[in-house]
Amino acid sequence: MAVEAADAATTGMALADTEINWDRLDKTRFHVIGAILFTVQSALIHPTAVVKTRMQVAGSGISQMNGLSVFRHIIRSDGIPGVFRGFGTSAIGSMPGRVLALTSLEVAKDMTLKYTKGLNMPEASRIGVANGVAGMVSNLASCAYFVPLDVICQRLMVQGLPGTTTCNGPFDVVQKVSKAEGFRGLYRGFGLTAITQTPASALWWGAYGSAQHIIWRSLGYSDDMETKPSHVELVTVQATAGMVAGACSSVITTPIDTVKTRLQVIDDYGVGRPSIMKTVKSLVKEDGWRGFYRGFGPRFVNMSFYGTTMIVTYELIKRLSVKQA
Question: Which of 16, 186, 197, 254 has the fewest CB atoms nearer than 10 Å to its CB?
């Protein structure tokens, strides 16, 4: 039904109209449909996040296994629920954060496109800049919400591993972390996340915007053409651009993500509060410099698949949410 509606929305669509901006959206439909479809999309990629997190946090045994072996190990020891640890908390907890992230993303992109309209710069660059600025603003706005949620979800994902605290559900995580470190314990890795993931988000969205524009032009489409892209072409181009953006982002951000994940979930570093330097030293001691790319395979798959499914879902949500004339 959703696909049929999207097909109907795409019929007669000019290439210039494939970019649906904030002022053309029915905001209520946008957020309601987005909550439903993004929850489904998150369920599809959650197991790869669990595998990646366990590889980053575990000792030399699991960390030196490949992603498929870790997945099998989790299935054998915990069954199917094991690869969905933390999903309920993540799915429900993410809903308010998504409203904040998507709203700030679309508003920032719309404003940047308007302010750069008269500048003498290639259209691919202008779209890339607008998407990049939007990604940066969205990440900064949502960091305050998502970092505590990440801390809670990741602690649930790594239950039972050495150096981690055993918790019975998300509320127990909040209680134990707050008791041990106060409220700031829920914001472990916030500075590292904000400083590093904000440029990474700008890179992802900038790469996606530019890649999509370049692909359309390489296929011979332009804004003033009478020939319209089909729904299949539309989804294929957007999926390819999302996959390219996700793959590039995973290569650049995996070392930082490994440090951030360990900082957020491991408590047993000896004396004092965990810090970035203690985390880095421990990682180098355990596995050398290649330790920073622990979980790279699952993260690469996660980010590439996430990039593809997220952007296809996101663009579908926007097409289904266009205001009716």
Answer: 16
3-state DSSP assignment of residue 133: helix
pLDDT at 5 over 60: no
3-state secondary structure of 25: strand
Q: What is the pLDDT of residue 3?
A: 45
| String of DSSP letters for 283-320 | HHHHH-GGGGGTTHHHHHHHHHHHHHHHHHHHHHHHHH
Question: Distance between alpha carbon 80 and the CA centroid of its chain, in Å?
Answer: 23
DSSP-based three-state secondary structure for 214: helix
pLDDT of residue 133: 93
Beta partners for residue 25, in sequence order:
322
Residues sharing a CB contact under 8 Å with residue 196, sequence separation 6 or more, in sequence order: 253, 256, 260
Q: Determine the Cα–Cα distance for residues 127 and 119; give it in Å rounded to an integer.
A: 12
Residue corresponding to tokens 């949502």: 142
Using a cut of 0.70, tell me whether the model's pTM lies above it: no
pLDDT for position 134: 93
Strand, helix or coil for residue 265: helix
- Name which of 250, 286, 279, 244 is nearest 265 in CA terms: 279
**pLDDT computed for residue 104 by the predictor:** 92
> What tens digit of pLDDT does each residue of 132-184 get?
999 999 988 888 888 888 888 888 887 777 767 788 888 888 998 888 888 88
- ∠ Cα 208 204 318 (to 5°): 55
Alpha-carbon distance 318 to 53, whole Å?
Answer: 31
Beta strands in the chain (DSSP E): none
Nearby residues of 257 by Cβ (< 8 Å), 6 or more positions away: 56, 299
